[in-house]
Write a structure and sequence with these properties.
50% helix; globular; five-stranded mixed beta sheet; alpha+beta; five-stranded antiparallel beta sheet; 634 residues
């Protein structure tokens, strides 16, 4: 049971936060009966798998097997610990989290890292706006056509050349040097004690998460400014706040525009994104020097129906565009490509041609990822005459399609239709029968599958290994008992008295069982909502949501009769195991056969005397004992 925060404080925060509103900020939800549903952000979801229950104030994805309350949602969505999730929600609810004594919640280190980043962002931004040292940065931004409004909107900054400038800004209440080192702003000197500024002499682009919290910086080399590092751009190192392969620049400012238009423009540079916003395209974001990846797309799918990758017109941009077909297929996305003319980047194009010309390009010149990949692979190829080159191009495209998860007959119709149209288009492009394309795709898939199997075998890996503590591993009787306890919490005292405690073997089940018993002994009703307050672990909250859902679906009419059936079934199975000398009753989940046999013998004797069950004899009829359990799991 969680001891760090009082249940009363948790309950106050939960009552102040509506989970439908909380989830709906990041995931579009629609009502479906008594529930709200939306696309799960943690897997490639095409049919809404995420359910939000406003009555229970809980959420659940039945595909990912993830669920819980408002705290669990923030923990999973933000990748934070429970104290940090509680602090985030308390701030939103306007509830102090240091009310008194046991209710005091210590601030997590991650919160201190956020505060350190916010402090540094403010110092660098003030320097850019006011310091004479930042004149080269202001001149560069003016040459790029970026307005003062954009500079303030994106909170740009400047790090002076002096190695210890940011250290000189420290005062009462500012973060410590080790804390600034943890967020990647300071680097420990290798020539003696102390630190120096990682970004000195650079124009700084603060990188924020979708909530607008600074988590990193991008630093650009400026003309006429001498810096020790010659690289044109450098980013913050990977920290507990910042992972550049998952972050999109400007998403905090673009998310409302994306929701409004259902479309997102993905640029390649900071200034490209800023200029797009300045010119009225407020649904623009940028990658951070990496290719557009699956993590980016999973993030964008929360808000956008259509993703447009806006690429420079140079050869490097064209090569990168060829890579996105795999994402188009595997992520089931409406993914489009716009390649700008004459080698221009978006910032230059918008300045020289204006927003109207850019809007016309978006309207008329974008092509989907398959069409663009076809154009890239067939450049300078005569499809009719150069048979060898044409087949090589088709083979390359089929390998990309084959690498996506294979669809089955029960796959969503939208995805089946998508693959059907894709193969039809390939057949038309290469002027070959569609069936030939399908047959070849099957062959390529078999080849890829064989390669994967061989690689797994060489690595000595075993597929299909399951977490032994996963909820699906609960003993069926154990699970039924927990369902009964969650659905009828007033019976917990009776259950604890009538059912052997030793029968609860699964560690998660034990925590729920013992917590329920402790609450009942303290005179508190251990119902679903009260139990959720007791557990900070997402896996326990998820299991509670599952158990409560099962209880609702089963509509148990006579809980005492069910309890008697469970007890009878359990003892008969245990008797059967002892009488037959069985040493591997896997459902009891004991680690060693000898331990299991000894435990069963001791338990049976104790419970036989306590419940008046006849002494077991040799030669028990297995089939009759099985039928006597009234259909309960064996």
């Amino acid at each position: 049971m969680a001891r760090s925060v009082s249940p009363e404080l948790k309950q106050r925060i939960k009552e102040a936060i509506d989970i439908v509103e909380l989830v709906g900020r990041t995931i579009p939800l629609r009502r479906q009966g008594r529930l709200f549903v939306g696309l799960c952000p943690w897997h490639d979801d095409t049919h809404p798998s995420l359910q939000v229950n406003p009555e229970r104030q809980s959420f659940k994805c039945w595909v990912c097997d993830i669920g819980g309350d408002v705290f669990a949602f923030v923990m999973k969505m933000e990748g934070v610990s429970f104290p940090e999730a509680l602090r985030i929600l308390a701030d939103q609810a306007g509830i102090p989290i240091t009310a008194s004594g046991a209710q005091t919640v210590p601030g997590g280190e991650k919160q201190q890292l956020y505060q350190a980043m916010a402090w540094a962002e403010a110092e660098y931004h003030r320097c850019l706006l006011d310091s004479p040292e930042a004149e080269p940065a202001r001149r560069y931004l003016a040459e790029r056509g970026l307005s003062q409004e954009s500079i303030r909107k994106f909170r740009l900054g400047f790090a002076p050349v002096a190695a210890a400038w940011i250290l000189s800004r420290m005062g009462p209440g500012s973060p410590s040097a080790p804390m600034l080192e943890k967020v990647g702003l300071l680097v420990r000197s290798s020539f003696g004690p102390g630190w120096y500024d990682r970004f000195r002499g650079r124009l700084l682009f603060p990188i924020r998460d979708w909530q607008g919290r600074p988590i990193g910086f991008g630093g650009r080399l400026l003309p006429g400014v001498d810096t020790p590092q010659p690289a044109k751009y450098i980013n913050s190192p990977e920290t507990s706040l910042f992972a550049k392969s998952r972050v999109l620049y400007g998403l905090d400012l673009a998310k409302e525009g994306i929701r409004r238009t259902k479309q997102v423009l993905v640029m390649e540079g900071y200034t490209d994104c800023m200029m797009a916003h300045q010119m009225g395209f407020d649904n623009a974001v940028a990658v951070l020097g990496t290719a557009l990846g699956e993590d980016h797309l999973r993030t964008l799918k929360r808000w956008a129906d259509r993703i447009v990758l806006v690429l420079d017109g140079d050869q490097a941009g064209q090569r990168r565009a060829a890579e996105v077909l795999g994402l188009f297929v595997s992520q089931n996305l409406d993914l489009w490509i716009l390649t700008l003319p004459e080698g221009m980047d978006p910032c230059d194009f918008l300045l020289l041609r204006g927003p109207e010309a850019f809007a016309r390009l978006l309207e008329n010149e974008t092509v989907d990822a398959l069409e663009h990949a076809y154009r890239i692979h067939t450049q300078a190829v005569d499809i009719r005459r150069d048979i060898q080159a044409a087949m090589a191009a088709l083979e390359a495209l089929l390998e990309i399609v084959a690498s996506a998860p294979r669809l089955r007959e029960d796959s969503p119709q939208q995805r089946l239709l998508r693959e059907q149209l894709l193969l039809q288009r390939l057949a038309e492009h290469f002027r070959v029968p569609e069936q030939l394309v399908r047959d070849r795709l099957s062959e390529v898939r078999r080849t890829l599958r064989r390669r994967v199997q061989e690689a797994v075998a060489r690595a000595g890996l075993r597929s299909g290994s399951a977490n032994p503590n996963a909820p699906g591993r609960l003993d069926p009787i154990e699970r039924e008992l927990l369902v009964l306890m969650v659905r009828f919490p007033h019976l917990v005292g009776r259950i604890a008295k009538d059912f052997p405690h030793e029968a609860i073997r699964h560690p998660w089940a034990q925590q729920i069982y013992w917590t329920s018993c402790q609450l009942a002994e303290a005179g508190q009703l251990p119902d679903f909502h009260r139990l959720l307050l007791e557990f900070e672990q997402p896996e326990l909250q998820n299991l509670l949501v599952e158990l409560d859902e099962e209880a609702q679906e089963k509509n148990i009419q006579d809980p005492l009769a069910l309890l008697d059936d469970l007890k009878r079934c359990y003892f008969r199975r245990a008797t059967q195991v002892q009488a037959l000398g069985c040493s591997a009753a896997s459902s009891l989940q004991l680690s060693e056969p000898e331990d299991e046999h000894r435990w069963l013998r001791e338990l049976l004797e104790r419970e036989r005397i306590r419940h008046g069950i006849a002494c077991p004899t040799e030669g028990v009829n297995r089939s009759s004992e099985t039928s006597a359990c009234n259909g309960l799991p064996q």
